[in-house]
Write a structure and sequence with these properties.
It is globular, with a radius of gyration of 21 Å. Helices cover about 30% and strands about 25% of the residues. The chain has 2 domains: about 240 residues, P-loop containing nucleotide triphosphate hydrolases (Rossmann fold, 3-Layer(aba) Sandwich); about 80 residues, no CATH class.
Length: about 325
C-alpha cells in the first residue's frame, strides 16, 4: 500500500438522521473516517451498528425519511453533499461503485445479465451496443465466470448464488472506479464460495490499485482483506487502527468481545464466547453515557453519565472508552 498518494475519501462529522413520529434519531452519529488511495478500509460491527447506512450516505442513497444532517463527505477533493442529483448519478457506478450483500435482490430478475452489466458502460462511456457487449463479456470473464458469452444472455435465476455475486463484482469493476464499496458481499454464500469470492476480490483490488470500503461483521474477512479497520457500535466509531494492531492489542471491550467470539479450530471448547445483550435500537439510545455500557463487564460509574470521546491512545490507534487516555478518570 502506498500511503503517499493521499486521501481519496474523507468523511468528517458525518451524521445520518431519521425523522419519525417518535422523534429524531441518528443512525450514524458524528463519525469521521479516511480512505487513502490504494487502501482497503474495513468497517466492522454487528447488524444495526450503522455500517451500511454510512456507505449509503457516501453514495447519496440514504432512504427516506433519513437525511445526511451534518458533516462533509470529501471525495477526490470535493464535497459530495454539494453535488446535484445529476452529478451524483455520474459518480455512482463510475467513480464510486458498490457491491451489495444479496445479489438476487440487487439484480433485476427480468433483464438479462448482459444488459445489466453493459448499462453502466453505455451510460458513463457512451459506447455502442456492440462495444458495451464486448467489454461486458470481458468483465464477466475477468471475474471467473465460465462461458461468459453464454452467461451474457441468461437471466439471474439461471445462475448460482456464487455466479450472481461474480456478476455483481463485474458490474462494479467494469468502469474501473476509484472507490469500491463492498457491503458484506459474501454473507449470503456458503463457506467454499465465500473463499472463492474473497480470493477474487483480493486479486482484483491488488491488480487495479483501487480503494475499498469493506463492510462486514466477519473479523476473519477483515484480517484477510483490509489494511485499516474501524469498529462501529450503535452509530459511533468506537475503535480504529491498522489491522495488525487491532488483532494484537484490541482496546475497547466491544472489540475484545468480537475477537473472543471467533471460533478457534485449534482449541476444543464446549461453549462459544458471546457478548451479552443486543445492539440498542435508535429509540433505545440514551442521551448520556457510553452506548456499550449496558453490555460491558468493565463499566464504571462514569460510563453511566459521560459519553467517551474517540482518542488516540497509540500511534494511529484510536479508542472511545473511559478505560483509556483522556477519557480515563
Amino acid at each position: 500500500m502506498d500511503n503517499s498518494k493521499g486521501v481519496l475519501l474523507a468523511c468528517k462529522g458525518l451524521t445520518v438522521t431519521f425523522e419519525t413520529i417518535d422523534g429524531r434519531f441518528n443512525a450514524v452519529d458524528d463519525i469521521s473516517l479516511e480512505i487513502e488511495k490504494g487502501q482497503v478500509l474495513g468497517v466492522v460491527g454487528e447488524s444495526g451498528c450503522g455500517k451500511s447506512m454510512t456507505a449509503l450516505a457516501v453514495l447519496g442513497l440514504v432512504p427516506e425519511p433519513g437525511v445526511v444532517s451534518k458533516g462533509t463527505i470529501e471525495f477526490e477533493g470535493s464535497n459530495l453533499r454539494d453535488k446535484t442529483d445529476i452529478e451524483m448519478q455520474n459518480i455512482r457506478g463510475n467513480s464510486i461503485a458498490m457491491i451489495f450483500q444479496e445479489p438476487m435482490t440487487s439484480l433485476n430478475p427480468v433483464y438479462r445479465i448482459g444488459s445489466q452489466v453493459s448499462e453502466a458502460l453505455q451510460i458513463h462511456f457512451s459506447l455502442s451496443h456492440q462495444e458495451a457487449r464486448n467489454r461486458s463479456i470481458e468483465a464477466l470473464r475477468s471475474v471467473g465466470i465460465p462461458a461468459p458469452e453464454k452467461r451474457y444472455s441468461e437471466y439471474p435465476h439461471q445462475l448460482s448464488g456464487g455466479m450472481r455475486q461474480r456478476v455483481m463484482i463485474a458490474m462494479a469493476m467494469c468502469c474501473k472506479p476509484s472507490l469500491l464499496i463492498a457491503d458484506e458481499p459474501t454473507t449470503a454464500l456458503d463457506v467454499t464460495i465465500q473463499a472463492q469470492i474473497m480470493d477474487l476480490m483480493n486479486n482484483l483490488v491488488k491488480d487495479s490499485l483501487m480503494s475499498v470500503l469493506f463492510i462486514t461483521h466477519d473479523l476473519g474477512v477483515v484480517a484477510e482483506m483490509c489494511d485499516h479497520v474501524v469498529v462501529m457500535y450503535a452509530g459511533k466509531i468506537i475503535e480504529s487502527s491498522y489491522i495488525a494492531d487491532l488483532f494484537e492489542d484490541p482496546l475497547h471491550p466491544y472489540t475484545k468481545g468480537l475477537l473472543k467470539s471467533i471460533p478457534n479450530v485449534e482449541e476444543t471448547i464446549e461453549k462459544l464466547n458471546i457478548i451479552p445483550g443486543t445492539v440498542p435500537g435508535l429509540q433505545e439510545l440514551t442521551a448520556k453515557g457510553c452506548r456499550f455500557m449496558p453490555r460491558c463487564k468493565q463499566s464504571m460509574e462514569v460510563c453511566h453519565t459521560i459519553e467517551p470521546q474517540l482518542s488516540e491512545i497509540k500511534r494511529h490507534h484510536h479508542v472511545s472508552c473511559h478505560l483509556y487516555g483522556d477519557n480515563s478518570l
